[in-house]
Amino acid sequence: MPFPFHLLAPPDPAALPLPHPACPADGVTLLRGAVYAVPDGGRPLTTDLWLPEDAAGPVPVVVFVHGGAWHTGLRDDPGPRFRAWRPGPFARLARAGFAVVCPDYRLSGEAPHPAQRDDLAAVLAWLRTRAGDLGLDPSRTVLWGESAGGHLAALTALTQPPGTVVGCVTWYAPTDLPGLAEDRPEGTYDAHDPASFEALLLGGAPAGRPDTARDASPVTHVGTGAPPFLLLHGTDDSLVPPRQSVRLAEALRAAGHHPDLCLVGGADHLWVGLSDADAADCFARTLAFARRCAGTGGAAGSGT
């Protein structure tokens, strides 16, 4: 008998048992480390799921995409201003009636663009497959990302079939990679640098890969089917110029949309320089926007 080589293939993530549930906060169930994809030749990709307990029916979904310059980062890290929150932002969203999905994705040291976009498309497909097991309504999915994660959230929202995503929130995200050289102060950015974070994402310096840089830019993919957007960016961001969020807002308006662009006065990257109250307001705006997009009720500041 020949060896059954099909047995060497990884198991189908859609059929794997879900992780054992934990209770990180009152009213919240956490499934940590569910496998959603196994890229060929790569590590298994996992996601955490924060779920509201005792939901009356299928719940809307927020997919959070972590930052880290596409090169590092943790899937459950919403940024330094929120690490000390008790309960944390994801538990608060779950208490507000959302399932919160925090996926890993391949970093730039593992694979270049479009691997990251493909991974987020894979987690959306996995959520649709496992919706019945998890009590989800994937037709009400909002993407939210910070920094590089905001870039990937926007890129995914704009490249999925219309209706897959009902809203997208970006915090201080790059949106037009070829435009970075113009938007950054003179002498602070070199589009020919093969070691920049953008070059690591693209597989080469942006100036030498103009087509890839455009394809990796959310502004390139804006069309009539784009979902609603909330763009939050600090006016004093020293790492990602606020002009990057303005560029995406302008592209959305040119396509007939009405994005909500909020330039946060005095804020640097990661909301450095903001008071605790103003940083909390960025989260409250995000929650209120997600509620509008998902068609849920409740006051904008609840869920704490």
TrEMBL record:
Q: Does the keyword Hydrolase apply?
A: yes
The residues that cross the membrane are none
* Keyword terms, alphabetized: Hydrolase
The record's listing under Pfam families reads: BD-FAE
Which stretches make up the BD-FAE-like domain?
48-252
What is the protein's given name?
Answer: BD-FAE-like domain-containing protein
